[in-house]
């Protein structure tokens, strides 16, 4: 393995380098969004790309999310592969109609003749002390819509390769980027052969209970497993990576081994993605489970002011409490 192919970079930098590689590889790839060009994005994820590829490839748009996505749909119809950035999670809703009514439906509406290879990048989740509308986790709203792929990396390597795969996909992909993990570093092998985009990964082997998470909560679950190990408990951590489609086969395989499952996500538990996982795994693994599937997430309430967000977000103690309850059965 050549040293220059392996880099230790932050998750945000990994996405930047992945976008750079896509721009270099395919002249039909475009990047669009508010402040993505000269500023390089508010999180500097697109830093330097407009300078190197020009204003016709990395496009600063007006503050108009519906217009950004609508324009991307038109460009995709003409053969381009647009990657659009929604600056913050809470800003996506003006574009919700374009995404769920047009972007998600065109393939079915045209009986498979029209493809829309659009990637919608959304920095999401809390944990950075932001103001209102800047810390939402709306992934379940999009996962409910047929025709969209929903993914979220938890580390730099996955961020790099999942972005490559999302851009190459002929289907629209909603790419949720865990903003609280933007500065977490990890090794990226730019010459690796990536696994399937929607395949979950076991990131810590265990036998007593499975913790399933994606995006920002994977690191927390690893910390929970490390804390539980000090008490003699052996927890498995499963990084789901994809919310739609969900890799139920990998979840089932883990649960058949550990016989217990706790699902963790930042989004509210009520009607969240964890509910679908709990229902499906209960159906699939009824005779293997030794405890009900438990869920840990946000509360069914508007996201609070920054000074209260640590009370709202799942933390070590709340997840460990769910682990204790599952193991008590």
UniProtKB/TrEMBL annotation:
Protein name, as recorded: Alpha-ketoacid dehydrogenase subunit beta
Superkingdom, taxonomy of origin: Bacteria
Taxonomic classification: Bacteria, Bacillati, Actinomycetota, Actinomycetes, Kitasatosporales
Protein keywords: Oxidoreductase, Thiamine pyrophosphate
Originating organism: Streptomyces shaanxiensis
Record's keyword annotation contains Oxidoreductase: yes
Required cofactor names: thiamine diphosphate
InterPro entries: THDP-binding, Transketo_C/PFOR_II, Transketolase-like_Pyr-bd, Transketolase_C
Transketolase-like pyrimidine-binding domain location: 9-184
Signal peptide (residue range): none
């Amino acid at each position: 393995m050549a040293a220059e192919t392996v880099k230790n970079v932050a998750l945000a930098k990994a996405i930047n380098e992945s976008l750079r590689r896509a721009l270099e590889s395919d002249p039909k790839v475009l990047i669009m969004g508010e402040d993505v060009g000269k500023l390089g994005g508010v999180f500097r994820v697109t830093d330097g790309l407009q300078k190197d590829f020009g204003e016709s490839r990395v496009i600063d748009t007006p503050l108009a999310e519906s217009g950004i996505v609508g324009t991307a749909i038109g460009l995709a119809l003409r053969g381009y592969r647009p990657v659009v950035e929604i600056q913050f999670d809470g800003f996506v809703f003006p574009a919700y109609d374009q995404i769920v009514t047009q972007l998600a439906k065109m393939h079915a509406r045209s009986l498979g003749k029209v493809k829309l290879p659009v990637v919608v990048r959304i920095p999401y989740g809390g944990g950075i002390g932001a103001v209102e509308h800047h810390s939402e986790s709306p992934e379940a709203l999009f996962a409910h819509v047929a025709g969209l792929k929903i993914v979220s990396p938890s580390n730099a390597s996955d961020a790099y390769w999942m972005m490559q795969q999302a851009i190459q996909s002929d289907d629209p992909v909603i790419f949720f980027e865990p903003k609280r993990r933007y500065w977490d570093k990890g090794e990226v092998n730019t010459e690796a052969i990536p696994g399937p985009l929607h395949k979950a990964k076991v990131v810590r082997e265990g036998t007593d209970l499975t913790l399933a998470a994606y995006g920002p909560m994977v690191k927390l679950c690893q910390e929970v497993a490390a804390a539980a190990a000090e008490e003699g408990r052996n927890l498995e951590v499963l990084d789901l990576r994809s919310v739609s489609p969900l890799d139920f086969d990998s979840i089932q395989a883990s649960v058949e081994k550990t016989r217990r499952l706790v699902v963790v996500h930042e989004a509210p538990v009520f009607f969240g993605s964890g509910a679908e996982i709990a229902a499906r795994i209960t159906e699939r693994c009824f005779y293997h489970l030794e405890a009900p599937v438990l869920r840990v997430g946000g509360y069914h309430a508007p996201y609070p002011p920054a000074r209260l967000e640590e009370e709202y977000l799942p933390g070590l103690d709340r997840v460990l409490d769910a682990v204790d309850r599952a193991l008590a059965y």
